[in-house]
Amino acid sequence: MALSAVRQRRSEPSDPSPSEPYTKLDKPEKAEEKDEGLGWVFPFVALGLLRYMSATSNIIHDCDEVFNYWEPLHFLLYKTGFQTWEYSSQFALRSYLYLLFHEIVGRPASWLFSEDKVRVFYAVRFFLGLLSVLTDTVLVVALSRKYGKRLATYALAMLCLTSGCFFASTSFLPSSFSMYAISLASGLFLLDKPAAAISVAVIGVILGWPFSILAFLPVTLYSLSRKFKEAFISAAVTSIILLALSIVTDFYYYGKWTSSVLNLLIYNVAGGGESHLYGTEGPLYYLRNGFNNFNFCFVLALLFLGILPIAKKKYAPDLLIVISPIYIWLGFMSLQPHKEERFLYPIYPLICVAASAVIESFPDFFRSKYNPYDRSIIVTVAKVMRPVVLSLILYASHARTFSLINGYSAPLEVYKILEHHDAENNSVLCIGSEWHRFPSSFFIPDYVGQVQWIDDGFRGLLPFPFNSTLGGTAAAPPYFNDKNMASDKQYLHDVVACTFLVELQLKRPYLTRGSDLSTWEPIAALPYLDRELSPALYRSFFIPYLWQEKNVFGMYKLLKRRTT
């Protein structure tokens, strides 16, 4: 009777079988939960805040950004500006379609702010920052949905705060545009949208930087292998539309049928471009540069392939495909004799993603493959090391960012003084050896009639003002060449004609023009970090108290000729 009175519960489908091990998935409430990952709002706001800070505080890192992009845009808006040989219709190496894309913001801003050109400059920078915010947000959300909140949060922190991403995100350069496209294409690929991903890759190559095609290759090929017909049609249609727009735009501005995309490829590849004329660096240049801009984040990113045997199930093949351009791009660019920091911009977001994956996998190095829920002391320590390493990366990144902004922002700030200074119309602003730090004509007020270069020993070819008499953008001026040979017309020989003078006065045993205080009156002066006399560690990273003490500073000056 007692046995018959025992009532047994009927086995439910969700009950674990007595013969099978019990796992977390056996809990009905856990099985029904779905990790939606990070939402769209938090990454957008976090990135937006940091990109706003970048737009307002970023320095100009490369004179190519000024003379190949800001100056032609200034000419389109105000009919004045400097022209480089690449924009001569004889060579036609630069795309006006890329400039027109930014004129979408620049033109309305010039109407809104009238003669305040500095605000137009920053309006375009805000636009660049917005593009970075949108594309990086897609990447972070895709990582969250595919690999979880932790990896996505680590990537978001690095995209926001690493020096490389902070500065590249608001730089007016095709390599930065390709960086935006890399982020967006990678995010769309992880969201299983191959057709959209390949279209974005095409935009990044044709509208941005043609050579970045190597960085887009893995995502492009794998997208084609997944949905060939859909992806191929998407790529073909996007390519045809953009190439047609590019050719028509080049015809309008260069005054002849040509393709700047094709010209650039022919000059650098088939034509054996002579980029070595503009300086060469050793094979380790990008490794040093990568560490400066990403510190330990860069080291961890390079170690991603090393963790694949442990984390293969998590990250292969999709994340491996997304991250593989780091190795392809670094290998290819390191083989080129002419190297510049901006050439690495396209892979900057991928460095953050790769490093995040390595940090997230720390516990996997010590966890038994037969016990995925190992809670041993060493695994716990590995988990604790994740935020520690991330914090170290972010602190070093802040130190780098702070050092660059405070050490090298003087040119932008000094030129802003001109807008608030009264002088006679048609004044002449003269610049000698500091021509390569000229922040663009957006910082030159209307009362300055001319910006002139004066000879301080530079023997390369300098930009000339766009010549409307010869045809403006369609001109092929005889003083331009592709051999970097100086023109005898590029300098103002009568220095007495200078109303203003910009120069950097360093602690050297020789006098500069501005040292003659009987002729020149300083109206603005800001400290500028002397790279040659400052120790590498202290100039590269801000170390409290020691940064000011160990580094050597010159004075970046704006001077005005005294009236007699």
Can you describe what's shown?
With about 575 residues, the protein is an alpha/beta fold. The protein has a domain at about 410-560. Helix content is about 55%, strand content about 5%. It has 23 helices and 7 strands. The chain has helices spanning about 1-5, 30, 40-55, 65-80, 95-110, 115-145, 150-160, 165-170, 175-190, 195-210, 215-225, 230-255, 260-270, 285-295, 295-300, 305-315, 320-325, 325-335, 350-360, 375-410, 410-420, 535-540, 545-550, and strands at about 80-85, 425-430, 450-455, 465, 500-505, 520-530, 555-560. The strands form 2 sheets. Strands 3-2-5-7-6 form a 5-stranded mixed beta sheet. Helix 6 runs antiparallel to helix 7. The longest helix is centred in the C-terminal third of the chain and has 32 residues, at about 375-410. It is globular. It starts with a helix and ends with a strand. Pfam families: Glyco_transf_22. Keywords: Endoplasmic reticulum, Glycosyltransferase, Membrane, Transferase, Transmembrane, Transmembrane helix. Belongs to the glycosyltransferase 22 family. Its EC number is 2.4.1.-. This is Mannosyltransferase.
- Termini separation (Å)? 124 Å
Helix/sheet category: alpha/beta
Quote the beta fraction: 5-15%
The average pLDDT score comes to: 90
Helix content: 40-55%
Would you identify the regions where 5 or more consecutive residues have pLDDT less than 50?
A: 1-34
Q: What coarse outline follows from CA principal-axis ratios?
A: globular
Largest sheet: 5 strands, mixed
Order of helices and strands: HHHHEHHHHHHHHHHHHHHHHHEEEEEHHE
Radius of gyration: 28 Å
Spatial order of the strands in the main sheet? 3-2-5-7-6
- What is the overall number of helices? 23
Strand elements, count: 7
Enzyme class: transferase
GO molecular function, one term: alpha-1,2-mannosyltransferase activity
InterPro entries: GPI_mannosylTrfase (IPR005599)
Pathway: Protein modification; protein glycosylation
